[in-house]
């Protein structure tokens, strides 16, 4: 039986106790991690029995040499190893993409070329295309910028009609498990059932 995963959505940069708890999920919560958190526009957190087991953010602190207008990076995705292969990553990825598109931004994600699992996902997906490869500023390793094929920038470049942003009535992906709303810490805005 699959665990009952609950999702919390926040539309503000996490601070205080919540930020510390989210940073504990990161492999290396360094200065770049905190810069992303400072510029977070949207945070989705996966919870199991009150424990944070996954995190995904949409931020505007883009350091990759992307040439897209209004880039919104879907960065900082983490799922605890014990909770992988349960659909958490896919749900959080879909939720972040939906949010970024609804805000009229150009969703991008930056993948370390050594990350075979991420490469496999983006290569198979028709929803993402390579914008460019470059050498990472922080890692000095080959990186690839992927851009959403649903973004207005990409669609216009391909000669397709741009999609109209869906805000403010964004419909987020439906969850298969039954969930109940989560209460966030006292320093967070609100929580909604995803």
Automatic annotation (TrEMBL):
<protein>
    <submittedName>
        <fullName>GNAT family N-acetyltransferase</fullName>
    </submittedName>
</protein>
<dbReference type="InterPro" id="IPR016181">
    <property type="entry name" value="Acyl_CoA_acyltransferase"/>
</dbReference>
<dbReference type="Pfam" id="PF00583">
    <property type="entry name" value="Acetyltransf_1"/>
</dbReference>
<feature type="domain" description="N-acetyltransferase">
    <location>
        <begin position="1"/>
        <end position="148"/>
    </location>
</feature>
<dbReference type="InterPro" id="IPR000182">
    <property type="entry name" value="GNAT_dom"/>
</dbReference>
